[in-house]
Amino acid sequence: MSEGVVRTGAPALAAEGARGRLRRHWPWLASLAVAVVIPWLFYDWTTGRHSGFVVAMLSQIGIMIIFALSYNMLMGHAGLLSFGHAVFLGLGGYATAHALNASRAGTLPLPLELAPLVGGLGGLGFALVLGYFATKQRATAFAMITLGIGELVTACALMFQTFFGGEGGVSTNRMTGHSLLGLGYGAPIQVYYLIVVWTLISAVLMLLLTLTPLGRMANACRDNFERAQFVGYDPRMVRFFQFALSGFFAGVAGALYTLTYEIVTYDTVAAPLSGNALLMTYIGGVGVFAGPVVGAVLIVLLQSWVSLLSNSWLVYAGVLFILMVTFAPGGLAGLVVVHQPIWRAGRLGRLLGPYLRLLAPGAVTVVGFVLAIELCSFLTIGAAQGKSFTIGQLTLDPRHPGAWLVAALLLAVGGVWLRYAVRGFGSAWTALTEEIKASGPRA
Amino acid sequence: MEVLLVSLLNGLVYGMLLFMLASGLTLIFSMMGVLNFAHASMYMLGAYFAYSVSHVIGFWPALVVAPVLCGVLGALIEMYALRRVHRNGHIAELLFTVGLAFIIEKTVQMAWGLLPVPYRVPPVLDRALFHVYGSNFHAYRAFMLLVSVAMFLAIWLLLTRTRIGLVIQAALTHPEMVGALGHNVPRVFTVVFAGGSVLAGLAGVIGGNYLVTEPSMAATMGPIVFVVVVFGGLGSLAGCFIASLIMGLVQTFAVVLDVSLADLLARLGVTVTSATPLAEFLTIPLPRVGALLPYLMLILVLLIKPRGLMGTRDT
User: Fold this and answer.
1) Which end of chain B is more exposed for a tag (fewer CB within 10 A), N or C?
2) What are the per-10-residue average pLDDT scores of chain A (443 residues)?
3) What's the CA angle centered on A270, arms B34 and A309, to 5 degrees?
């Protein structure tokens, strides 16, 4: 995947030809193609309309990809754990909302396509000010300062009317009449394609940033800031610049948020969104450039689909995180990277059988677990809301012991079976890696 | 004057409650390096356990049973999950506790419902203890103060007078050395984690009916407790104690003193009107900023002293 891009530096990029470039960058082109095509798969030809739900979700994914990538500039590339990253998304969003309102009033001839730049500059400006304080420290002290900044800005957003609009937030209208391409941007699909373009621009810029001396020094300060000091760099300035640029991209995401929803409230600066950035980035994988992209896609999908289907989204999210941090600390991208030596040795096919054997017990366990959680949820919260538990045509009564028995049985059988299957998978994996090691140092 | 005295007492009660929560977190954080986001969830569980248990056997046994339940839960979490995640680094541990906090919050919602539960102060203590300048001092607050002081003494004696306490103190600053001397550091970790959970549970039992017992109580208390721990400094229970009292007093007084910067300027002869620059900022009354002050103080302290008030080592 694009992990190779990060590792090999600029000289390799310059040396290769067009075909090599294509071979190296195909994941980018593929994702771009997917992003362009997907809305048309859900196009309703009879009414001539795009599915509102799908376009809204895709827009959200695009925004969150920029946000998660900008967060990884801190966490993955500079080793800075931030609890207040949403501040810069939100402040960029507020700046954009005011700029759009000024544009509609006629005082600012701002083409809508460039509105994300306003958000980015807003994020950058605030990141320069707040980052000046935050980056004085590193590690936990830095994390705690960002936590404090996040809470402070959230409280300010609720308190001050002129800039933040208090609890009601600032609402705006994206149809300003100023456009480079002459588009109206009334339809969500037009905004979606604008988001695609800006997501691509931001992602490419952030990738290129990892190749600059600043990006490299950020890595160095993350790994060993004392040695970086000996080389003659000031780790504080490295942190500061990295923080400011990360604020810029978060601001771009905030601007796109404003364009999509046409309202900015204090939610956009508050702690839950900052927490989301951390989760998306970590679940996706901090060690690989494309990791946060994967994380953002997965988390937004889960949030919009699972929370539609179930009351208990928080439990599933919690369990997912616990499983990930326990068994896959490298995130999803890390899981892919683990397979790389086996893939290079051309023996990935040998893992197919062991993986398939995991499938059935895994499915049984998951079904049992979901059933148990949903039964619990419907017994208390669902009953209070007057909902009933239906799967297709089947209506389950959470007060009936039968359903509970089935859930418990599935969970128990699946658990034991899964444990057994995992052990088998583990030995197959060890055998394979031993074999590859033995077959030559190259692999 | 009467406002001062009553607020002082109230601030003390709140500060001691904070200390009960924060002391456990300080021990866990300093020793294991875990930013435990589920600590406030233990506080919430303590309150809910106490609510359920006190229905069956009354408030007084619940005062013991609920914290013990939290402690057992804490020990199980440490032994079977956290120890495993420990290998994957600090951020993994942190996220683990975040996931745990999610699960606990939702479990509480599923078990006890979305609305606050009627967890009440026991009738014996539900009366005024004495009057100060016309306002009552509630007997339950005195009881809270009593419990927290007793707990403070107990921790202090445990840490300074017993063998395990000395090992814990040593492990706060030099965990590797303690391990090298042949002490079972993982078991010390389990003890500390369970002990911290007991304290958080106890805070929940006596704080849940003083404040409100509801599913969001963990989320409202969590950040403040972090602030207290970092403000006080890692590895220092004394710093944690002082920080708790400062935070308790600051928050209580901020609610009581209804002044703004504009009032202050008016004393100096400057009148603030809506036309004055920054008028919005100047006219905000102090009670509205009350919730902000801890964070402001946290940032200021960290900028000047990254170790916190009395921290013995770097964060």
Assistant:
1) N
2) 42 59 80 87 80 89 95 91 93 94 86 91 94 85 88 87 85 83 82 93 94 91 87 90 95 95 91 89 88 92 79 79 84 85 79 83 87 80 68 71 84 87 85 80 51
3) 90
Alpha helices in A50-138 (DSSP H): 52-78, 86-105, 115-134
Is A244 part of a structural domain of the chain?
Answer: yes
Q: Report if residue A356 sits inside a domain.
A: yes
Structure tokens at B38: 């589920």
3-state secondary structure of B87: coil
- What would the pLDDT profile of B152-191 be if each residue is shown by its tens digit? 888 888 888 898 888 888 877 777 888 888 888 888 889 9
Q: Do A152 and B292 touch (CB under 8 A)?
A: yes
In this structure, are A417 and A306 located in the same domain?
no
Same domain, A367 and A298: no
> Could B96 and A321 be called an inter-chain contact, meaning their C-beta atoms sit closer than 8 Å?
yes
* CB contact residues (below 8 A), chain B span 16-55, against chain A: 35
What one-character DSSP code corresponds to residue A43?
E
Output the domain CATH number for residue A285.
1.10.3470
Closest residue of chain B to A155, computed from CA coordinates: B292
C-alpha distances in Å from residue A43, one per residue of A38, A51, A54, A55: 9, 6, 10, 10
Residue of chain A with shortest Cα separation from B84:
A326
Type of residue numbered A433: T
Residue A330: DSSP 8-state: T
Tokens 């893992």 found at: A351
Chain B residues whose beta carbon lies within 8 Å of the beta carbon of residue A312: 106, 110
| Alpha carbons A123 and A105: distance in angstroms, whole number | 23
Q: In terms of residues, how long is chain A?
A: 443
Residues of chain B with pLDDT under 70: 1, 132-135, 272-277, 280, 312-315
B197 located within any domain: yes
pTM of the model: 0.86
Task: Looking at the complex, report in whole angstroms how far the Cα of residue B88 sits from the nearest Cα belonging to chain A.
Answer: 6
Structural domain boundaries, residue A401: 340-439
Backbone dihedral region for residue A183 (phi beyond 0: left; psi -120 to 50: alpha; all else: beta): beta
Cα angle for residues B60, B63, B65 (degrees, 5° grid): 110
- Sequence-distant contacts of A339-345: CB under 8 A, at least 24 apart: A341/A433, A341/A436, A341/A443, A342/A432, A342/A433, A342/A436, A344/A443, A345/A436, A345/A439, A345/A443
Q: Has residue A163 been placed in a domain?
A: yes
> Are residues B35 and B94 in contact, defined by beta-carbon separation less than 8 angstroms?
yes
Q: How far apart are CA A439 and CA A435, in angstroms?
A: 6
Q: Do A325 and B93 touch (CB under 8 A)?
A: yes
What residue spans of chain B are helical by DSSP H? 2-32, 39-57, 59-77, 83-86, 90-112, 139-161, 163-173, 175-180, 185-208, 217-232, 237-256, 261-267, 279-282, 286-289, 293-304
Measure CB to CB from residue A325 to each of B85, B227, B299 and give the nearest one. B85
- Measured CA to CA, the distance from residue B270 to residue B260 in angstroms comes to 13
Instruction: Give dist(CA A313, CA A371) in Å, integer.
Output: 13
Report the alpha-carbon distance of residue B224 to residue B289 in Å, rounded. 15
Asked if the structure places residue B90 within a domain, the reply is: yes
| Identity at A46, one-letter amino acid code | T
User: Is residue A168 located within the same domain as residue A22?
Assistant: yes
Into how many domains does chain A fold? 2
**Cross-chain Cβ contact B281/A160 below 8 Å:** yes
- Number of domains within chain B: 1
Domain region containing B122: 2-218
Q: Is A394 strand, coil or helix?
A: strand
CB neighbours (10 Å) of residue A393? 5
